[in-house]
Amino acid sequence: MMNRLPIDDPRYTAGLLAIASAGVLAAALFFQFALGYQPCVLCLWQRVPYGAVMAFGIVTLLFRQWRGLGDALLVASGLALLAGAGIAAYHVGVEQHWWAGTSACGASGRAPQTLEELRAQVLAAPVTRCDEVAWSLFGISMAGYNVVISLALSAFAFAAARAAYIRTSVSRTFA
Predict the structure, then answer these.
(1) Do residues 159 and 7 lie in contact, with contact meaning Cβ atoms separated by under 8 Å?
(2) Confidence at residue 76, expressed as pLDDT on a 0 to 100 scale
(3) Which one, 2, 27, 55, 86, has least CB within 10 Å?
(4) Phi, psi angles (nearest 5°) of residue 5
(5) Using CB atoms within 10 A of its CB, is residue 108 exposed (0-12), middle (13-18) or buried (19+)?
(6) In this structure, what DSSP letter does residue 34 have?
(7) CATH number (domain holding residue 47)
């Protein structure tokens, strides 16, 4: 009997991706609630792909009898993580002042004309600005680390999907 690598089983890979995503989210929540670093809107957006990958992993584990579903959800996980890397890279650019953030990042539009407009603008302004680095290690911000982590997990998801595709193709060829 041929020894199979665990990576060609979508359940194994989906579980690892879900655990890694939960770890990243736990770290973000630790920084927020234990250390007091309040997230900006881009920080919050970067959490969404990890939640999606966790959901894809749970679905893969629950519906393991649908082999093709697990393979497709590995690709979806890879795409979600690529999107997360894109959001994080955009955030790095905002932090480095390479480009402006979104209007939700504290960028101001036109100047208020009345006291009511000024009050509404102040109340609607985010507490945390996107263009200020709240924490960094070795000169790399959390968003910078998120780019690296998201790309690595995305590559892992795509490699696992490819291995699952090859496994399926080989088993059909010799069946």
Answers:
(1) yes
(2) 96
(3) 2
(4) -80, 145
(5) exposed
(6) I
(7) 1.20.1550.10
Which SS3 state, helix, strand or coil, does residue 111 take? coil
Is 60 exceeded by the pLDDT of residue 23? yes
Q: Determine the 3-state secondary structure of 136 from DSSP.
A: strand
Which 3 state secondary structure label does DSSP give 75? helix
Number of structural domains (the chain) is 1
Q: What is the mean pLDDT of residues 10-19?
A: 91
Note the pLDDT of residue 173.
59
Helices (H), the chain: 10-29, 41-62, 67-95, 115-124, 142-173
Helices 67-95, 41-62: axis angle to 10 degrees equals 170
Residue 105 carries which DSSP code?
A: G
SS3 of residue 96 by DSSP: coil
Q: Does residue 1 belong to any structural domain of this protein? A: no
Tokens 């955009």 appear where? 90
3-class state of residue 107 by DSSP: coil
The percentage of residues in the chain with a pLDDT greater than 90, rounded to a whole number, is: 49
Return d(Cα 69, Cα 7) in angstroms, integer: 16
Which residue type, as a one-letter code, is found at position 84? G
